[in-house]
């Protein structure tokens, strides 16, 4: 079973990316043939002008450094950049001919984008689910690791695949969702999901000192105003991070929080220490990779080469089905 996943080039990865996606990527590559793609064309739907796109190259590099340092292995998985395999754009155009516009207009994220980027409601936003489908099926991906919020997109991809297969004969397997078991990781503000756009993240590549500083600035259980107040760990974003970085002491933290046996300052210090201990091997590996400036280019070239070999075969098959000889 082939796994496919794509991620936008957001640059340095944070703790939310790490526990929510990257650790899962690493685990999956032990069990399956995996293809992980940095989707730079998708990023263009939200960027406008030379200044905004000028960060793409650096973001791709930083992201790949984090992936590799976290354990993604280019010998096992195919790691590449979406635009390096241009066949995806042809398949996107072909799939757009089998996808009714009404399917695309009902997608909730399209409606959200129409509100959030009023000045730039471009065609790419409407076609986004078709490009996502092309990404997956160009490599005949059968398993797609997703969070619950992405399930509607995958369902739409499955509908497009069914329609293509119905109209032109069986060509593509229907991709199946593999739901991540990790709950949404909230950011340091305690309200929204951890994200660079909200500036509420802790980057994996932060120094130990920066990590301590960021964690100490985090919001906690809002009902705990004084040290003597009992806390509610289930409402606290710091506690949710304890579950991943101080696993051996998480039950004790919950107990002491509820009985006001520990204050938030000490609780945060404990967490920051746990994160730094856990990430030390990651940071060492990242430093080592940074000292080899050509390595990232080599990984991406090799990844694009391997991805393209699969893409060319699939595209020929799809063209033949559609009468484009
Ligand atoms: Fe959150 Fe820890 Fe404070 Fe409890 S003691 S509210 S878990 S930071």
Give a count of the beta strands, DSSP E runs of length 2 or more. 5
Question: Could you tell me how far the N terminus lies from the C terminus, measured between alpha carbons in angstroms?
Answer: 29 Å
Q: What fold name goes in the CATH topology slot of the largest domain? A: Rossmann fold
Outline the low-pLDDT stretches: none
Number of domains: 2
Describe the structure.
With 325 residues, the protein is mostly helical. 55% of the residues lie in helices and 7% in strands. The protein has 14 helices and five strands. The chain has helices spanning 15-31, 40-43, 50-53, 56-69, 87-96, 101-105, 108-116, 123-138, 151-168, 208-216, 237-245, 250-258, 264-290, 295-321; strands at residues 2-7, 33-38, 78-81, 143-146, 176-179. The strands form two sheets. A three-stranded parallel β-sheet has the order 1-2-3, with helices on both faces. The chain has a two-stranded parallel sheet with strand order 4-5. The protein is globular, with a radius of gyration of 22 Å. The two termini are 29 Å apart. Residues 220-221, 224, 231, 233, 236, 238-239, 253, 257, 262, 264, 267-268 line the site of iron/sulfur cluster (SF4).
Short description:
The chain is mainly alpha-helical and 325 residues long. The chain has helices at residues 15-31, 40-43, 50-53, 56-69, 87-96, 101-105, 108-116, 123-138, 151-168, 208-216, 237-245, 250-258, 264-290, 295-321; strands at residues 2-7, 33-38, 78-81, 143-146, 176-179.
